Amino acid sequence: MSPAVKPGHHETSLEEARQHARVDEEGHVYSLSSDGGEEKYVGQYPGATEDEALQYFTRKFDDLYNRVLLLKARAAAGADSAKSLRESSATLRTELDEGVWAGDISGLAAVLDETDSQITQQAEQEKQASEEAVAEHLAVRERIVAEAEQIADADASTQHWKNAQARMNELFAAWKAEQKKPPRLSKSQEDPYWKRFRAARTTFDKNRRAFFSQRDRDHAEVKKVKEELIARAEELQNSTEYGPTTKAYHRLMDEWKAAGRGARKTDDAQWARFRAAQDVFFAARDAANAEIDAEYAENLKVKEQILEELEKLMPFESPEQVRDQYHVLLGRWDEAGKVPRGDIRRMEVAIKRIQDAFREAEDRHWQRTDPETEARANSMLTQLDETIAELQTELGAAQKAGDDTRIKAAEEALEARRSWREMLVKNAD
Question: CA-to-CA distance for 65 and 58, rounded, in angstroms?
Answer without folding.
Answer: 10
